[in-house]
What does this fold into?
Amino acid sequence: MKTKFKHAKTVKPVLCVLLVLALLLAGCANGGNQGMKKETLLANVDDRGEYVTPEPTQAPEEEEESSSGEESTAASSSEEEAEDSKTANEAEVVRASSRNYSGYTVVRMNAAYSTSELHQPDGTDNSAKMAVDGNEITSWQEGVDGYGEGESVWFTFDKTYNVRYMCIKTGNWRTPQIYSENTRPKELSVWLDGECFRVTIPDGQTEYCIDFQKAVSASQLTVTIDSVYKNAMWDDTCISEITLYANN
It folds into this structure.
């Protein structure tokens, strides 16, 4: 007669538990991450003592998307800077006395505008038209807080000209003392219609000429203050006079 075992159904779970213990012992022998391996194995055993294969986990993609966005922004910024540098034409800045303007026409201004102007208590006119009135004692003075970086003055012409030179007297030329007390532009963006020229004007009460090195067809001039010399008593940035010369 064959002997029947009452607990035959428990053989399979017991074997599974023994298998798990054997794996745990092997993990301990290997060293290193034994604590992590033990927790992982026990977590993967179900309530019947059977080992359950864990489902693969996916790494979060948010950081990758963020990193990709930052790289895209940086690339876009670099492209904009490169494109901006391409739009700027070269021009030579020399002393105005070094050029011969005979045979050239002085460009006549139709109207003058500015993004801001300084309003003096005594009523002195510091509007844009003061920079093209032919009088170096008067001047356009920007009127915002600070040094006026980013402020602009622009003029429309009475017709389209082929502009070759722009002479400029930066600062307030009323007296040498007033000149030293007021801020002068250093770097300028000069626009003749759609063509841009970025130039640096040396400091000092001297008239300088911007030689565009070619005739530029234009009916409007815009001058923007990009940076200034900040060694003055007052932060009012001034331009006393602008004169354009064209070959028509």
Notes: Residues 10-43 form one domain. The chain has four helices and ten strands.
